[in-house]
């Protein structure tokens, strides 16, 4: 027995020597310990808590994903129990935002590029030329992963993304071939099972009954009017006198001040297509009568803003028969009494005011508008340019124009100069800035609003990361830029640092402690 033990001990010792850890064993025998520095991809316990807290506090818009906070644990920090669609949302959009500032630049850029690859690959509209660029970018991204992550990570699943861009180029958009429709329909088939001893027969009978009902409904629609259920965010007109969209919940009557009414009325006049000829007519008239307006464009637009409401009211009197009834009431102006709502549906999006505290976030909006821009406060040469504004909805108002109602979103906007910045490929906004610059222009039309949502860095920071989401239903008239979420800026390998493979600084972290063996 002792001889067998000695032989096993010699064999084990020889194996350890072959593995190259003899010096480590001798160090432990002598009472010394070895310090193992943290890897570049390693997160400390505090960083894991920050990562999970950002996911737990995340609130997306209606229909975007499930409640992610139900799948996140803060103590201990862990993630589990997510559906396949939630994994896609996490991989394509949430992961880079939640990971922001928690890793060194090298591995963080590699992870961001991988998420950006899947985000661009899963869009509803694909450009074959851009897919060719994606094929080369994913190879560079995989090289970055091999630089910062251990070899045990690279199994066959990490080789698969190399071929996905070519597959999309040959087969078209990905959503025609993925498994989500089949998974959803499997839930319908499973609901047909009443006798668990014969599940296939139950599914067959339920499917046959459903097909029969579908054919009967199709026949009855041609003879008997059958009311079909509306989709959740379908913006059918609930009231004939509301110009666009439909309000939600119960209306509250409010009385606007003269300044609030005039500000809202002026915005509607300036953003209604039927008023465009009259706007141009008024500008030409001001330039002809006033030399200062002809020389200075800033004075021209300031005078136009002050006088246009009164001018159009005199230009189109209410008793005129030469204009349409709607145009006459629009020129006449709204009442001081308006109605406010907590929710509104338009263009497939569900909007709600900022004071509605729910698991979803439907109050974020963005708007692109022409604005007078200048290089500095001392620059007198201003020019008009397209500027993107970000904000949250504070009030949803329906102005009463006697014969019809026009909806408006009153928003709190982030200041373009001080409240918006670009960092690490993300757009960050400060929603707690002073609103004095937007006192005379806080409104937008619902048709102009594009829904966004915000992810806050932490409770002490005033900055929010801007994120976009496509509408719940697909609209064929939308372009690629309108239906695609904002993609992250792709950074190349030379932005990370030294290319040397033996550079120890790219493989370990110096800003946190490792472990002692």
UniProtKB/TrEMBL annotation:
What sequence ranges are listed for the domain DUF4216? 399-466
Describe the location of the DUF4218 domain by residue ranges. 121-223
Q: What is the top-level taxon of the source organism?
A: Eukaryota
Read off the InterPro entries from this record. Answer: DUF4216 (IPR025312), DUF4218 (IPR025452)
Report the Pfam families cross-referenced here.
Answer: DUF4216, DUF4218
Which PANTHER family has this protein been placed in? DUF4218 DOMAIN-CONTAINING PROTEIN-RELATED (PTHR48258), FK506-BINDING PROTEIN 4-LIKE ISOFORM X1 (PTHR48258:SF3)
> Under what name is this protein listed?
Uncharacterized protein LOC130503395
What is the protein's species of origin? Raphanus sativus
* Gene name linked to the record: LOC130503395
